[in-house]
Amino acid sequence: MSPTRAVVTSSTGATARRTASGAAEHDGILEALRQRDPDAAATAMRAHIANSYARLGPALARRAEGASE
After folding, report:
1. What is the separation of C-alpha 42 from the centre of its chain, rounded to a whole number of angstroms?
2. Backbone φ, ψ for residue 49 (5° rounding)
3. How do the pLDDT tens digits run along the chain, 69 residues long?
């Protein structure tokens, strides 16, 4: 696991399943780039951003609420 992924995982309480799905999304983005397919890369990146927000948004919001108290 990369140091950045370890920090995000520990700070948001990410589960192994969520971490694996994010890694699979990264693989899809990289594969589209390797294939020089900008449309597939853009589609994969948009999906990854939306999925990341859905996965991380609630944890980050709880963390921000705790910081403001």
Report:
1. 15
2. -65, -45
3. 555 455 455 554 556 666 788 889 999 999 999 999 999 999 999 999 999 888 888 888 888 887 765
Give me the DSSP letters along 17-63: HHHHHHHHHHHHHHHHHHTT-HHHHHHHHHHHHHHHHHHHHHHHHHH
And the tokens for 43?
A: 């589609």
Q: Is the model's pTM score more than 0.90? A: no
Quick one: DSSP state of residue 69? Answer: -
Quote the distance between the C-alpha of residue 33 and its chain's center.
Answer: 18
What is the C-alpha to C-alpha distance for residues 18 and 62, in angstroms, rounded to an integer? 18
Q: Which two tokens stand for residue 48?
A: 């990854």
Domain that holds residue 48: 3-67
Total domain count, the chain: 1
